[in-house]
Amino acid sequence: MALPMTAAFLTGADARTEVPLKRRLKRAERARQIKALALILPLLVFLLFTFAGPIAGMLWRSVGDREVRQVLPQTVAALADWDGKDLPDEKAYAALAGDIMAARASGTIAIAAKRLNYAQNGFRTILTSTARNLKAAPEPGTARETLGKINPAWRERATWTTIRDAGGPVTGFYLLSALDLTRNADGAIVAAPPDQAIYRDIFTRTFLISLSVTVLCLILGFPVAYLLAALPPGRSNLLMIFVLLPFWTSLLVRTCAWIVLLQSKGVVNDSLLWLGIIDEPLRLIYNRFGVCVAMTHVLLPFMILPLYSSMKAISPAYMRAAASLGAPPLTAFLRIYLPQTLPGIGAGSLLVFILALGYYITPALVGGAADQMISYFIALYTTETANWGLASALGAVLLLATILLALVYGKLVQGQQVTGGMKN
Amino acid sequence: MEAGTVPPAPALVRFSGIQKTYDGEHLVVKNLDLDIRKGEFVTLLGPSGSGKTTTLMMLAGFEVPTQGEIYLADRPIKNVPPHKRDIGMVFQNYALFPHLTIAENIAFPLSVRNTNKAEAQERVRAALRMIKMETLAQRRPGQLSGGQQQRVALARALVFNPQLVLMDEPLGALDKRLREQMQLEIKQLHETMGITVVYVTHDQSEALTMSDRIAVFNDGIVQQIDRPDALYEHPVNSFVAHFIGENNVLSGTVETVEKQYCRVALAGGGAVTARAVNVSGAGASTSLSVRPERIAIIPDGTSSDEPNRLPAKVQNTIYLGDHALAVLDVADNREFMVKLQPGTHDSLRAGSLRPDSLRPGDDVFITFRPEDCLALDPV
User: Fold this and answer.
1) Which region among B66-80, B282-296, B357-371 has the lowest average model confidence (pLDDT)?
2) Which long-range contacts (CB under 8 A, 24 or more apart) does A37-46 make?
């Protein structure tokens, strides 16, 4: 009789203790979690407002399309069920006339004109001239005739598809433009006309400049990092100060210093002339050479520091072991040392490359017209022409490329940890 | 002293008048002359900073002697770079290449020598078999335990059949049990493969277990080179006597010297007869060395013919499982250790006390044979 009671008591005790134990654990952990959260909260909020928010805004602007919808709401609604094969019906013409009248009254016609002009050159004129000449709302049933008379463009199907495509609320127009693509009147994606197709070249140029700068940084930074890692602490600290020195001067100052050095009457040219090595000044600045030199100088620490930290972790015993096993110094370096610095090379290269992708001031100051990188155009569209949609789309493409690169790098590093990457 | 008992073989390594300084002021190695014969297992033993590791590094080629010459198989190697010396080395922290698999690590010395692939593969397989790790060939060093990594480091240093293998405190990072097991494995490898090994350690029991000969280093000088038993039984000076094994010290002054023995008046009162090992003559101060296991404790008043009988007071007894230690107050030494073997006390001197019969504060006598008491240089 006592036995089943004991058993029941035991299982009961189990059930009773298990739940409270979990709850107790949770309660004990909760205080810690709240504390941890409180510690990161200020930064989290800051990042949310200054980083995540703006990026989300940028991404939205690269696909958002509201101007035409706001200014010509009835037209957009009327074109919603248009099949696009023929000219739209009288209803759409009447809606457009009504919208234009209303827009003229509120002075918003220019907003829609600007947006439509991106999609079709000359659309601004079509819209403003129509607004100017449309004295009163046309009689019912005569809207098509009236508008056609004011501007013959209203008798063309392409004019209407432009309005329909710009009707929003989302559009691929800016993203396509950023890739030198556009939609024709039938809605198919085609190459943009040659006079508008400039962005692929600029992206290619941006990537090429970034790549050259990365390679230059690697070539120049590797020996320095090696020296830093090999020197005794006292002297390596001194050298490290020299490496970090650029961080303590403003980017603008450093870039301007290169102008002083490299211009045709600059220090370098004068010295070369004086030494009789050259007869006339070399063109060292306001071209690709100047951009690469100045950017390499600015970005070099970002290569050296990851390399240094990966090299610092390599015990000198490895090179000794390699030598004692019969490897000559070069073989030991290539087969033992270099493979172990690969994570550092990868991290440094990725850092420099991504930073270089977004460079703006340096190319703007020391580059020529043919050396401006994508950020220059993003800035141009943001501040000069106020074409935020295109600026955002270019930014989105750049962001996507950067994320892809980071992912590829992550995959490579991970793969290396699992399989070792290097094989003899 | 009694080094001649190892069958004479040609010296494979000869240090000749080697000196080494790092700062130009202090000699880390002061005038080293040392011969290592082919097939020998020689241990360089000494406290840290005694010059043993520097000596090994000079042999490996990572340090250059300031003076003197090192010969390997009668060839001077002072100016030969490490990778051309044909010396395998096992490092303290293994130094296995972390980005290579176990098999690739072991194959490394073969591949830098351009050994043909089939042969290299066969030798790697044989090496893996030797260390019983065939199944782990494709693992990386980071996935192995310390003992396994040590085996791989051994295999890697042996796979190219070097004429000499150096080991720099290879077992320092392992726990005690594993270390003892590896000591036996290394010893066995040495015996079966007939390799010549120079081994550096600061652990005297490790040196005693494995070595054919031990060179005891202190202060940049080799104090004594000898077989393990000779080092233990016949240390030439106080340093060696203290460094190898446990040791009780009594200080005193030599009264008379007669043949190999001398009579020493103890600083704490009383006199004993000791073997005169390192004393200059009558009147010289000396340190007496007596091993704890060569002493018997006899109760107060027991008559004995022994010339060495000293009064003692029991301080403490320490139980250590296989034996017990009695801590006594003898003459000027307040921590005089006597090793008692509870199970076998009868085989010791008749009348020796059992540890459980000793109480702190008891007055007893200790006795030891003159040949077990060494008169050495004063500490």
Assistant:
1) B357-371
2) none
Q: Assign residue B169 a region (left: φ > 0; alpha: ψ between -120 and 50; beta: otherwise).
A: left
pLDDT in tens, A111-132: 888 888 888 888 888 888 888 8
Residues from chain B contacting residue A327 (CB–CB below 8 Å):
83, 108-109, 112
Q: What is the three-class DSSP state of B374?
A: strand
ipTM tops the 0.85 cut: no
- Beta carbons of B376 and B235 less than 8 angstroms apart: yes
B:32-71 residues touching chain A, CB 8 A cutoff: 60-62
Check CB contact of B86 with chain A, cutoff 8 Å: yes
Residues A22, A24, A27, A30, CA torsion sign = negative
Low-confidence winner among A135-144, A360-369, B49-58, B171-180 (lowest mean pLDDT): A135-144
| Torsion sign (Cα): A162, A166, A167, A171 | positive
Please state the φ and ψ torsions of residue A372, each to the nearest 5 degrees.
-75, 135
Instruction: Give, for A401, the enclosing helix (H) or strand (E).
Output: helix A388-419
Mention every residue, 6+ apart, whose C-beta is less than 8 A from residue A256: A365
**In Å, what is the CA distance from A229 to each residue of A42, A215, A240, B253?**
36, 21, 10, 57
- Burial classification of residue A256, based on how many CB atoms lie within 10 Å of its CB (0-12 exposed, 13-18 middle, 19 or more buried): middle
A324 touches chain B (CB under 8 A): yes
Closest CA to A65 of A169, A176, A161: A169
- pLDDT tens column, B85-110: 999 999 988 899 999 999 999 999 99
pLDDT tens string A405-417: 888 888 877 655 5
Report the phi/psi class of residue B219: left, alpha or beta, with left for phi > 0 and alpha for psi in -120 to 50: left
Strand partners, B201: B45
Query: Alpha-carbon distance B34 to B16, whole Å?
Result: 7
Distance CA A379, CA B224 (A): 80
pLDDT of residue A421: 37
Lookup: tokens for A12? 């009961």
Predicted TM-score (pTM) of the model is 0.77
Do the beta carbons of residue B102 and residue B133 sit within 8 Å?
yes
DSSP single-letter state for residue B3: G
